[in-house]
Write a structure and sequence with these properties.
Length: 212
């Protein structure tokens, strides 16, 4: 099973690395990092880069597609090479997935029309502008399309996928190997539980929704 993890300038590292830690441990799995051009791709924090081993043109038949989000989403939404690749490979995938604002990219490619999907809370209201039906859940499945909310939710998404692909026992074993048992020190992990003033502050900062 080949998973194609899309990279583009300004993606958020954990959106990809979190799911990678889970999906790469499924027996028989192959994870390929791909971008418009092969080579290092800088994350949203600029101090880190991941390497795209293959250009999109060489990744033609993945079983699973993973699209991360991040501040670079806006540019990716307008990149015809990214959107055309998604449209080309999607008919052959078993799963087409995203984390965070990566769902906006799937929607911009026309893959989420009329489908339920989630995204980072700050981008959730943008989904209907692209034809999707926004759902404020951590992980959403609609047919073969699976979307995760912000950043850390990608780990939950990957565990769900591991269970569906390899069975619950394998998924549980992977969860134990990575010791995924979050106990956050604050109740600020979602817009529903964070202090309202903090939510409004972040809405008005550079985390603003990509312009469409």
């Amino acid at each position: 099973m080949q998973t194609a993890a899309l990279l583009y300038p300004g993606f958020t590292a954990l959106d990809v690395v979190g799911p990678y830690e889970i999906l790469s441990r499924i027996p028989g799995a192959e994870v390929v990092f791909t971008a418009v051009e092969a080579g290092p791709v800088r994350t949203d924090m600029a101090s880190l880069a991941l390497t795209a081993d293959r250009p999109l043109a060489e990744v033609t038949a993945p079983d699973l597609v993973l699209v991360p989000g991040g501040p670079g989403t806006q540019a990716a939404l307008a990149d015809p090479a990214v959107l055309e690749w998604l449209r080309a490979v999607d008919p052959g995938t078993t799963w087409t997935t995203s984390v965070c604002s990566g769902s906006l990219i799937l929607a911009a490619a026309g893959l989420l029309n009329g489908r339920r999907a989630t995204s980072h809370w700050i981008a959730l209201d943008t989904l209907p502008l692209l034809g999707a039906v926004p759902t404020a859940e951590r992980v959403v499945f609609d047919g073969k399309y699976a979307t995760a909310a912000g950043v850390s939710a990608g780990i939950d998404l990957a565990l769900h996928l591991a269970g569906r692909l390899a069975g619950d026992a394998v998924a549980e074993a992977i969860q134990l190997v990575v010791e995924y048992a979050p106990e956050p020190p604050y109740a600020a992990g979602s817009a529903a539980t964070a202090p309202p003033a903090l939510v409004e502050t972040l809405r008005s900062t550079s985390l603003a929704v990509p312009a469409l």
